[in-house]
């Protein structure tokens, strides 16, 4: 189940990245750089989630039965799906928030929430320095999912009416 969920999430991220990049492209001055950041962040988030899914799948096979291999796979799975994904997702949500502010296509409170969420995601790699930073991982992920879900609905409605 976990593997399937991560693969579906990674594919959904690719699609959402395209929508965020499109919004960033409409953001005026500096839009090219913002669009590039959205694509890079979204692709990093999707690729790291796919990597985590591959590790989870490998853990279900013979490599998961060997202590050393299982431990290595589990560490890679966590690193890819946790701090690395958090950083990429943070960049994506941050560009969404900034583009939403610049274009006015997202309500200001939602865009600001995106920037706060992005901060948590961008700080999640601090886990590699101190275990105390582990809270940035779910903080950035869950707040980013909430922001992206609401933004996705609003942007979809907007594109249907224009």
What does this structure look like?
- This protein is mainly α and 162 residues long.
- It has one domain.
- The protein is built from five helices and no strands.
- Helix 3 packs antiparallel against helix 4 (108-123).
- It starts with a helix and ends with a helix.
- The model has no long low-confidence stretch (mean pLDDT 94).
Secondary structure elements and pairings:
Layout: H1 2-25, H2 31-59, H3 67-103, H4 108-123, H5 136-161
Helix pairs in contact: 1-2, 1-3, 2-3, 3-4, 3-5, 4-5
Give a brief outline of the structure.
The protein has one domain (2-161). The chain contains five helices and no strands.
Structural class: mainly alpha
Q: How many E-type strands? A: 0
Q: What average pLDDT do the residues reach?
A: 94
Q: Number of helix segments?
A: 5
Spatial shape: elongated
Helix content: over 70%
Order of helices and strands: HHHHH
**Per DSSP, what share of the residues sits in E-state strands of 2 or more residues?**
under 5%
Which spans of ≥5 residues are poorly predicted at pLDDT below 50? Answer: none
What's the domain count? 1
Strand count, sense and barrel status of the largest sheet are: none
Radius of gyration: 17 Å
How far from one another are the termini? 38 Å
């Amino acid at each position: 189940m976990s593997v399937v969920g991560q693969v579906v999430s990674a594919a959904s991220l690719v699609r959402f990245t395209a929508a965020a990049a499109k919004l960033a492209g409409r953001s005026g001055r500096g839009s090219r750089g913002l669009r590039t950041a959205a694509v890079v962040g979204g692709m990093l988030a999707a690729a790291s989630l796919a990597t985590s899914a591959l590790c989870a799948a490998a853990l279900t096979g013979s490599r998961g039965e060997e202590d050393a291999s299982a431990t290595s796979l589990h560490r890679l799975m966590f690193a890819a799906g946790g701090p690395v994904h958090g950083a990429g997702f943070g960049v994506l949500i941050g560009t969404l928030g900034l583009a939403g502010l610049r274009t006015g296509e997202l309500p200001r409170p939602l865009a600001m929430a995106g920037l706060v969420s992005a901060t948590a995601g961008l700080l999640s790699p601090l886990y590699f320095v101190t275990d105390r930073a582990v809270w940035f991982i779910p903080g950035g992920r869950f707040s980013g999912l909430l922001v992206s879900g609401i933004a996705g609905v609003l942007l979809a409605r907007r594109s249907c009416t224009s």
